[in-house]
Amino acid sequence: MRHDFALERKLIAMDLGHPHDADPGPDPLDWAALEARAAPEPDRVQGATNAQARLRLFGQPEDAVRVTLYRDHHAWCPYCQKVWLWLEERRIPYRVRKVTMNCYGNKEDWYRRLVPSGMLPALELDGELITESDQILGALEAAFGPLHRGMDDPQVLPLRRLERTLFRAWCQWLCRPGLGERGEQVAAGTFERIATAVEDALEVTPGPFFLEELSTADLVFVPYLERMNASLAYYKGYLLRHRHPAIGRWFAALEQRPTYLGCQSDFHTHAHDLPPQMGGCHASGSEHQRALAAQIDRGPWPITAPDGADPETSQNKPADAAEVALARVLRHRAALLERYGQGSGAFDTALRCALTHLIQGDSCPPPGGTAADLRSLAQRISVPRDMPLHGARRLRRALDHTAALDPLDPSAPAFPLTQNHRYDQDPRPFLLAEQAQPA
Ligand SMILES: N[C@@H](CCC(=O)N[C@@H](CS)C(=O)NCC(=O)O)C(=O)O
What we know:
This protein is mostly helical. It has helices spanning 5-15, 31-37, 78-90, 109-114, 133-144, 157-174, 180-202, 216-236, 240-243, 245-254, 258-263, 267-278, 287-298, 321-331, 333-341, 345-360, 371-378, 389-403, 428-435, and strands at residues 55-56, 67-72, 94-99, 122-125, 128-131. It has a five-stranded mixed sheet, with helices on one face. The chain is globular. The protein starts with a helix and ends with a helix. Bound molecules: glutathione. Residues 77-79, 101-102, 107, 118-121, 132-134 line the site of glutathione.
């Protein structure tokens, strides 16, 4: 017999004994009504940069493709992001083959046969396989010409070295356990000094980028400045963009480009994906840091820097952020229902309650006992793998809001995120639906 969740919602509300609780709130939209409200599928092949595409053509015919990029399913690998962004900026047609990173699940056998170390990225250019992101960029430059200035340009080389120096200072601060108060100060001071040198380098030219226009030098800095910005906010309470305005302007200029917006992650994703990759990230434990980390985890968003700016993005929320988030959930509805509700009707209703709130603002209490699953899903939305930053904010908020209306256990916490692996993010259950889309 089919379980009547609407009736159960009424009975639970009456059981709670408060007169207003007898009204369980509006019923959630059904799946068909939700489908009707979702954003249409964008053109992933010819349209804006996106993490889901498996072919990118930039207006050229498919037989013009000379490049295959092997990168991670999670659209998270920093060295892949550098190459990905280069191909997008230079509008070079390419195919994408996605591979699982070790901390998310098992590496595909076909990839191990191709690249025995299993390391990403790799790239095939005219049938020749190249590994190591810097070698890959060198080969792409030789074949297609540089992005303004190339990897070995005398203006780019010192900037590449500066990026590695900043990277090491970041690792010394973020990844060393037990620094203590004095050690935190020293590591922060070293990082700050090198970040100031990065600002000085940015201010050599009048524009926001390192050289006269966007170049390879900027792309070399993108992956780790993005990860520094997120992780230092979460683990150290340090707002990089605010503390270093020239770096803030550099990010804001990148955020004018659809190429960067399509591959940009967010604070929450990086904060929880970095620990297994880096072998641990260590919080300073200050009151300010803990408050900021709590806000990155549970909102409200946007976070505001002391100057009132959003330290995560300079971009306002697009008008269709909720509809885009809805479309992405609908694509993976079957896998999500299986994973979070073990196929139970209760989670089906709970998810529709959250999506109803997302799309039309109604507060729709979910079946009792679903709050933990709703919060667990909110904690596992990955940007840009699943959806862009603003859509993720809206969806996390809708899931958390709905969880808090659970009539049985409104404060049930999410299942904790693991620190040394993220097997909870194994891509396999989601692959079929992702591949069902065109190209
Ligand atoms: N020096 C290499 C570093 C590449 C690298 O560290 N890749 C990591 C991902 S960010 C990797 O593939 N690790 C194995 C795994 O996670 O499966 C490059 O620049 O390409």
